[in-house]
Amino acid sequence: MTDPSTLGRVESVFADRVARGVAPSSAWGVFDRTGLVASGGHGDRGDGAAPDARTVYRIASCTKSTTAAALLTLVAEGRLDLDALVTDFVPAFRGVRLPTPDSPVPTVRMLLTMSAGLPTDDPWADRQESISDRDLDAVLADGLLFDSVPGTRFAYSNLGYALLGRVVAAVSGTTYTDAVSERVLRPLGLADTVFSAAESDGFVVTGVRAFAGSWEPLPLTGPGAFSSIGGLFSTVSDLARWGRHLASAFAVTPEPGPVSAVDRRLMQQAMRVVPPVVVPGSTRPTAYGFGLFVEQDDRWGPIASHSGGYPGFSAHMRWSTRDGIGVVAFENATQAKVATAATEALDLVLDATVPDPGVQVLPETRAAQRRVSALLAGWDDDLADAVCTPNVALDEPYERRRRRVAEAAAAVGADLHAAPVEESSVAPTHLRWWLPGTTGRLRVEIRLAPLAAGLVQTLTVAAEPNTV
Q1: What CA–CA distances, in Å, run from 386 to 301, 358, 449, 454?
Q2: At residue 381, what are phi and psi to the nearest 5 degrees?
Q3: CA distance between the termini of the chain
Q4: What is the pTM of this model?
């Protein structure tokens, strides 16, 4: 999938972080649609050995994707409506005073998309994992603050996902942790992904924070009312398997699994725009789906991701939904922000694997390309009528188009009978290609109308002279 030199550069990204003292240990993996293709570990995981693909770390908020997945299995069974009110499942929320008299009660969908109006709450929520449902009810009884009217804007809310954990439990008739394990994790064979260190068969890394020039160990918290925000432990091997499964929803033949491909694609759709202030330094527009961030890259298309940060741990997973290529990474230090390294690593891998990615065009687009090529090589108005929608002649009369095609071809010495030398596409119904010329090249571009006949609604021909 990826050449050894690129994987060597990826390894250096994580090894350098340990060398610089960002964290005592760092573990990473690269996967594609076939599975985990490369992994590595650096530093001391706590027993004198470097971590490997089976070493267990907290994955913190990467858990949110499994919370969303479990909810969607309940929706698929007809037991839950995404637009149901949170008060239907968490009665204690009925006493919460909403920010305005006309504010709607938050729905399950609002909670999933981080748009229930609740404030961002990482420092507080990261310490709440082990509280009981009764304790959470007491929090609600004391009232909540809101940053916005529910349903109107994004704000990253752990409390919102804690409430979703209660929804999962109420609808499934079991505990949240059991529901996620039985509905998502075990059917996929994710045996190393668990909700407590005691359940793990592997070596569990101790989380630390920097103090007085050394590393101070931090205690592990156990399952509770906030486990749905970030309670999972996992491994590079397991989390890569989860990322691969989610990405496979966009493959020609999606993997089967407990969550349908339709719902997995739904998880990875942009539902709420994420303001740039939430992701400082990001060069990509970002949104939130169901338990996953969705970034839009100009070259590689949508990239699904999620970070995880708990006291003592940092985790990140990300992949190209189009190509199914991804990276997972863990470190065991507070605020290590391994997402920075994982982002760099995936960019390296994608750049090496798909240096000039394109879009798979429809067969109808290919057929239209052949017919347009014949039209340009010997213009005929009847052929143009058969190839194009009526607006093409109305937007610019055929006589003018024929003359402009000839002038453009002459300007660069292009052979209208030649095979394309390059092509690209931004959508399945769009195609751009270039014909060679003696002093430049000719660009031809088509876009199909939304008609099953595959007719061209836009036809552009332009000369591109050599610049030197």
Answers
A1: 33, 28, 13, 10
A2: -65, -35
A3: 37
A4: 0.88
